[in-house]
Specification:
- The chain has 215 residues and is an alpha/beta fold.
- It has two domains: 5-121, 3-Layer(aba) Sandwich (Rossmann fold), CATH 3.40.50.720; 132-214, Alpha-Beta Plaits, CATH 3.30.70.1450.
- Helix content is 37%, strand content 28%.
- It contains eight helices and eleven strands.
- The chain has helices at residues 13-24, 36-41, 57-62, 77-89, 102-112, 119-131, 163-170, 204-214, and strands at residues 5-9, 28-33, 48-51, 70-73, 94-99, 115-118, 135-141, 145-151, 173-179, 182-185, 197-203.
- The strands form two sheets. A six-stranded parallel sheet has the order 3-2-1-4-5-6, with helices on both faces. Strands 7-8-11-9-10 form a five-stranded antiparallel sheet.
- α1 links the parallel β1 (5-9) and β2.
């Protein structure tokens, strides 16, 4: 039986909850703490805790980075980026980083192919959802393609319009809609509602114009 392995770098309240989630979904989880005080936070988690400098490639090998299908980063932005580069060079399929300074670091993580979660965007997304306010987040970008996560405000001109019609006018794909706790695959009759969260994917110019109009 194949056991999926995950490496969580940094131990804090958030990473502890993530580690528990991974364990409950069948992952064999290892965690890296920068010091003994941090390591003590990981007591009670069914994961092996390594203590050391995660920027050291030899230490990362000992912690199991080469066998890991997922590496999740919860240290400061600069260290997260260093570790992400090592993980990428060693062929880790999925790398996810929580980042504090979006303006300084987001582009670097995206260019590296890392799933970056800006803390401020996570908070703003929830606020926008509860208050039905507009919100957008760039998920992926290269020379040709962009992907955005957009929360539809109560003032959006596209409320009650069919998703397929909006996508056609925008020249972009809207493959799924998150409505409440449900992920809905777009179909011919699905209409946009205030508070919906849309995934927009397409040519960069078309997506940018669509995002500015739609949310």
């Amino acid at each position: 039986m194949h056991v999926r392995k995950a490496l969580v770098v940094g131990i804090n309240d958030v990473s502890i909850m993530v580690a528990r989630l991974l364990v409950s979904n069948g992952y064999d989880v290892s965690m890296i703490a920068g010091n003994e005080d941090e390591a003590r936070l990981g007591r009670g988690i069914p994961a092996y805790v390594y203590v050391g400098d995660p920027r050291n490639e030899g230490f990362l090998r000992d912690a199991g980075i080469d066998e890991s299908e997922v590496v999740m980063l919860f240290m400061d932005d600069a260290m997260n980026l260093e570790v992400a580069r090592v993980a990428k060079s060693r062929g880790v399929p999925v790398i996810i980083a929580l980042i504090s300074n979006k303006e300084k670091y987001l582009d670097a993580f995206i260019e590296l192919g890392v799933y970056a979660i800006p803390i401020v965007d996570a908070v703003l997304s929830k606020v926008a959802h509860y208050l039905r306010l507009p919100f957008k987040q760039l998920l992926y970008s290269d020379d040709k393609v962009q992907a955005y996560y957009v929360v539809i405000s109560s003032e959006s001109p596209y409320i009650n319009q069919e998703v397929k019609d909006v996508a056609r006018r925008c020249g972009a794909a809207i493959p799924l809609v998150i409505r409440g706790d449900e992920v809905v695959i777009s179909n011919g009759e699905l209409r946009i509602e205030a508070g919906d969260k849309l995934l927009l994917v397409g040519a960069a110019d078309s997506v940018i114009k669509c995002v500015e109009r739609i949310y």
